[in-house]
Amino acid sequence: MPSGSVVTRFAPSPTGYLHIGGARTALFNWLYARAKGGKFLLRIEDTDRARSTPEATEAIYRGLKWLGLDWDGDAISQAARADRHAEVARQMLESGAAYKCFSTPEEIEAFRETARAEGRSTLFRSPWRDVPESEHPDAPYAIRVKAPRDGETVIHDRVQGDVTIRNDQLDDMIVLRSDGTPVYMLAVVVDDHDMGVTHVIRGDDHLNNAARQMLVYNAMGWDVPVWAHIPLIHGEDGKKLSKRHGALGVEEWQAEGYPAAGMRNYLARLGWSHGDDEFFTTEQAIEWFDLDGIKKSPARFDTKKLANLSGQHIAIMDDAALVAEMQDFLAASGAETLSEAQMDAVGRAMYCLKDRARTYPELLEKAHFVLTERPIVPDEKSAAQLDAVSRGILSELTPHLQNASWDRETLEGVVQAIAEAHGTKLGKLAGPLRAVLAGRSVSPSVFDMMLVLGRDETLLRLADATG
């Protein structure tokens, strides 16, 4: 294991949005670095120039920033380091750890076709491995690293345990193509080494890559990092996560109104655990996180659990922070943001909005009573509560409220007395009152709304409905 401070990295390819699986990988790397007092670095693996786009890179930045995963230093572009990658390939050539291969793509494919037809291994063994320089033709060549032919390569993995691969299963991997461009497998190793990465935490679909990448580490005499290959995320049906399971991009979840703290909590629990703890703060996750808590088996994405955890985080969040995050949500989803007056009103009402709200749209729905203006137009469901009888009772209630002390106990007592005078229960008046004050069937309690709105606004809304 390399000595010194822990350095992790997240290395996405900018070919699309930040996938939920990538976000979980980034989170694990970030948590481990922060838990160990180390560094979390970001590298954009943009060597596929045809598919990499600036827009996708910006989407990755936005997704990470929304999740609160701050990286140390500037993001590194892999494509910008191509000269350095090629330099390492030539160093391996000079040291004898790699060799020139003059086999053409057509020759290699012909070999593989014959091997397939004869039922033999298609692993290509270059005939140029041991040919002396004096016998080399004047022709384009690729540079291949010399893989060991005998024995075994053991990947010491902190999640998967020791994984053994027979060396006769490894090919002499090309590290520099005949056109002088480096391959991805080389670029990853050179970048990780140059960036000082000590722990490579990534999806277990990269597990076999580790054996091939170790060829480069060993050829260069570099320290091999600690490997930790984490399980993939599956849908609720146990199959690999895909579009059919719903939103895949982090920004889609942001646009649906899930708080970043809830998403961090939920993603941390996907494939990692700390005892039986389900709900925890980011500070607790940093304190607890270790590679030993990562499971081998695939995790299942469960939207209900995400919603439940999100609701718990909304419930404990600071009111001012919640209002600010609601603004960010509205901006991210393309909706109109709140005015200063609306932000102030929502802040005053937040104590009675947070209960049982799991997303920002649910919070905004409950906050409708302070975001709307008179005259209140009730929706169809709440309008059904306002018949002639209920309007009559509410008109009788109005003068009793004009001189009442404006506290919860007094207000409840006044409404209770009117309900009893009409031989009904307080709950029966709640529906009509809710329709008058909010115009919605989903809202905080009528007494909380009256307290937030204040005497004057409450009476004006009653007068509009009963006058």
Order of strands, main sheet, comes to 1-2-3
* Uncertain stretches of 5 or more adjacent residues: none
Strand content: 5-15%
The total tally of domains equals 3
Catalytic activity: tRNA(Glu) + L-glutamate + ATP = L-glutamyl-tRNA(Glu) + AMP + diphosphate
Binding site for ATP: 243
Function: Catalyzes the attachment of glutamate to tRNA(Glu) in a two-step reaction: glutamate is first activated by ATP to form Glu-AMP and then transferred to the acceptor end of tRNA(Glu).
GO molecular function, one term: glutamate-tRNA ligase activity
Put the structure in a nutshell:
By secondary structure, this protein is mostly helical.
Description:
The protein is mainly alpha-helical and 467 residues long. The chain has 3 domains: 1-71 and 231-316, HUPs (Rossmann fold, 3-Layer(aba) Sandwich), CATH 3.40.50.620; 81-230, Rossmann fold (3-Layer(aba) Sandwich), CATH 3.40.50.620; 380-466, Arc Repressor Mutant, subunit A (Orthogonal Bundle). The protein has 19 helices and 12 strands. The strands form 5 sheets. It has a 3-stranded parallel β-sheet with strand order 1-2-3. Helix 2 (54-67) links the parallel strand 2 and strand 3. Helix 16 (388-402) packs across helix 17 and helix 18 (426-437) packs across helix 19. It is elongated, with a radius of gyration of 31 Å. The termini are far apart. The mean pLDDT is 94.
